[in-house]
Write a structure and sequence with these properties.
Helices cover 39% and strands 7% of the residues. Strands 3-2-4-1-5 form a five-stranded mixed β-sheet, sandwiched between helices. The chain folds into two domains: 142 residues, Lysozyme-like, CATH 3.40.80; 74 residues, no CATH class. Helix 7 runs parallel beside helix 9. By secondary structure, it is of the alpha/beta class.
């Protein structure tokens, strides 16, 4: 009887392990099928687009020898605004949600690479940064398990740093192009939250930062909305842009612009555009 119970217990453990191991078996299979269809499309020989009025099609196809893969140029960092890493993984594997990211970083530092970097994830939504309006097509999305109001775990930030270094080196992403979801969608989003360590990232080459300097200021003829636009923000809603800027660079979510805020704007603009320093008059 004891042997029988032991055997049953053993098979129960196997069953539990199998269920956990294959929790995403169906969605993984869907991923492979979808990726295979894209690969087939990419590998296909280009065909002429017929224009019955103006175009005369070439008698044969001539393929160029000079090309490579399109590469991501931005990294957009999010918090999940959910209660667990598992909840986020499930959200990103349900077709009806229509949201995804390339990477998900759990509280224990585990990194889930959910989508090939060359594929387009649905993480940014309607967004704008500088002149870029289709951010999803030019970016990698990273979601960090965080409910939106709590500090980030040190293990998460450590894993994030390692991941960012890999992405920066692999795709030659400019240091100014590591941004947050709220930066590209200030009227809709507030992630990553106010606790996110942007200054620490910037010290490692992932984003730009500043040093407190009262002598560094905006020129008198440079308005705050125009300054924010030079940084990269969409200023159709100026208040939302100010709040997004202050959340990122000042760890503050108010819409009041102080002289210290203007100093920060001036420094960020100078670093992004490589302009000479602008010192306050009489300083």
């Amino acid at each position: 009887m004891k042997i029988f119970l032991k055997i049953n217990f053993f098979f129960l453990l196997i069953l539990i392990f199998a269920c956990n191991n294959f929790q995403y078996k169906a969605t993984n299979q869907f991923y492979k099928q979808q990726a295979a269809s894209f690969i087939k499309e990419i590998a296909a020989v280009p065909f002429p687009v017929l224009d019955s009025i103006n175009n005369i099609n070439a008698p044969q196809w001539v393929g160029t020898t000079n090309f490579d893969l399109r590469k991501p140029n931005f990294v957009v960092i999010h918090h999940t605004a959910q209660n667990s890493c598992e909840e986020t993984l499930r959200t990103f594997t349900l077709e009806r949600t229509k949201v995804s990211a390339h990477y998900v970083i759990c509280k224990d530092g585990t990194v889930h690479h959910m989508l090939n970097d060359y594929f387009r994830a649905w993480h940014g939504g309607v967004a704008k940064w500088g002149n870029a309006t289709d951010i999803n097509s030019s970016s990698i999305g990273i979601e960090i398990d965080n409910n939106g109001i709590e500090p980030f775990e040190p293990k998460q930030i450590s894993s994030l740093m390692n991941l960012l270094l890999t992405l920066k080196n692999k795709y030659k992403i400019p240091e100014t192009n590591f941004i947050g979801h709220a930066d590209i969608a200030p009227t809709r989003k507030n992630d990553p939250n106010i606790h996110f360590p942007w200054a620490l990232l910037a010290k490692k080459g992932f984003g730009v930062w500043y040093e407190p300097d009262a002598n560094f200021t905006l020129p008198n003829n440079l308005t705050v909305p125009y300054a924010l636009a030079l940084v990269g923000y969409d200023v159709k809603d100026t208040t939302a842009a100010i709040i997004a800027f202050k959340r990122h660079f000042r760890q503050d979510s108010t819409a009041l612009v102080t002289e210290a805020d203007k100093s920060v704007m001036a420094q960020i603009i100078q670093k992004k555009l490589g302009l000479p320093e602008v010192k306050a008059v009489g300083k």
